[in-house]
Amino acid sequence: MPGPKYPPQGALGCADRIEALLNGFPKSRWDSKTEWETRLRELQVLILSEGGSFKDDWQGARVHLWGFRASSTSGLVAACRNWVTQVRAKLGASA
Question: Is residue 3 part of a domain?
Answer without folding.
Answer: no
